[in-house]
Amino acid sequence: MKSLILGTAALALTAGMGLAETVRLGTEGAYAPWNFVNDAGEIDGFERELGDELCKRAELTCEWVKNDWDSIIPNLVSGNYDTIIAGMSITDERDEVIDFTQPYTPPDPSAYVAQSADVDLENGVIAAQATTIQAAFVAEQGWTLVEFATPEETVAAVRNGEADAVLADKSFLDTVVGDGLVMLEKSESLGGGVGMGFRESDAELRGKFDAAIQSMKDDGSLNELIAKWEVSSQW
């Protein structure tokens, strides 16, 4: 699951949203199988199905909003939508700005994809999506990092030789291996599970979704959804 490294966020709205209003779910729509835009131009994937079910259980009317990854937290804080459901890992750094539900998936391993299984990661060029914990991890190792705005661009960089490998969530890279790309045996354990993000002023709304997530864990339906979309290990 992807993790945003926070930049400077806008100030939160002074009042929380009214629960009687339509709840706007913010997602990237570019990270299959977690979330993506289908051929009909609609948000699809694991988190679309999960979000719709959570809204049903919480007895809320919801609508989906697509937002670029690099501004997804600032635009939540500034009120463009009411929650983030976008493969976002729960981190201490992020928790200083927004609040989270309990995780709805365990951490998804981060994996490497390259054109050759014997690529030298330490001396090569590693691509990662900007403002993710994968990008932060590569930088922390002292390796050469090249960042891109979208996950598709990181993969394209490996295909065209601009990068030697890409580091990203394994569930995403599973969708791109083949056609000259191989997944390395090496993987990294990053992040602390994926949860929904909320403005700190929206504790009541967060509580409704938290209870809905727990109900799906309790009846096994969340594990069924995780298995269907193959986004992570099960609970």
TrEMBL record:
Tagged with keyword Lipid metabolism: no
Annotated SMART domains: PBPb, PBPe
Membrane spanning stretches: none
Protein name: Transporter substrate-binding domain-containing protein
Domain Solute-binding protein family 3/N-terminal: 22-233
UniProt keyword list: Signal
Domain (Ionotropic glutamate receptor C-terminal): residue spans on this chain: 22-232
Organism: Leisingera daeponensis
Secretion signal span: 1-20
Superkingdom classification of source: Bacteria
One Pfam family linked to the record: SBP_bac_3
